[in-house]
Amino acid sequence: MDSNSRRTAADKTLDVLEALAEHSSVAELAQATGLSKPTVHRILQTLTQRGFSRNTGSGCYVSGPRILTLAGQFLQQLDLPGQVRPALQELQERTGWTVHFALLHGDEAVYAVKVEGSKPYHLASRVGMSMCLHSTSAGKSMLACMTDEAVRALLGRAGMPARTPKTHTDVESLLRELDHVRTAGYAEDHQENEDGVIAVGAPVFDHLGQVIGGISAAALAYPGGATGDFPEHGALVTDAARQISLSFGAPPHRSDLRSRSARS
């Protein structure tokens, strides 16, 4: 018995519906799902009748309005802080550092969730506080998802204020660092946003694979944190960000910087 014969009708329908996000013709959908063209065509007819797909009139299909309706209804029910908190809590327990989730908002980001670290101190960050992108680890990880042209345009509007003596204030030097961020999968903050505070951050993506925010783990440089922890903590932050991205519906190949860079 081959794998296709073990797939239920629901499996096949969902496979075609998911493939519609990246493919449009019957032939492409058949190849992507491993189904026969007649089967794909029959499923598309049902999806079209129910509003989940739409025939463009040129033999190709795209997602239908019913998908947007359902997505909007589910988004209204979404408890964003509650959805990300378990992953952030686990990250905090594994690193011992203070963990944040920030949402991209225009040319800056805003802290949406904070989980205090296990050390006997509290960082100045708070929920609702805005943050610069060029001087924070989460912010730089978000910038790394953009093209160099987009980064230049954004920083041209927002500026690059020197938060500390170590802050990047030159676009070209920051762009060079962003190349390393894309390779590593996470960004580092070496006391660039606040004196005495270090951090690592990674981006979070939505169901379209677009960057919507980032998470970070931060600690005092001395005592309580050391840059020698960056590789280990960077990997943990990257994994947590990917977990959150997938929970938001991000495609696996667009759910972290490393997978995106590998396909570019």
UniProtKB/TrEMBL annotation:
Keywords: DNA-binding, Transcription, Transcription regulation. SMART domains: HTH_ICLR. Residues 66-250 form the IclR-ED domain. Residues 7-65 form the HTH iclR-type domain. Signal peptide: none annotated. Gene3D superfamilies: 3.30.450.40, Winged helix-like DNA-binding domain superfamily/Winged helix DNA-binding domain. Pfam families: HTH_IclR, IclR_C. PANTHER family: HELIX-TURN-HELIX TRANSCRIPTIONAL REGULATOR, ICLR FAMILY, HTH-TYPE TRANSCRIPTIONAL REPRESSOR ALLR. This is IclR family transcriptional regulator. It comes from Saccharopolyspora mangrovi.
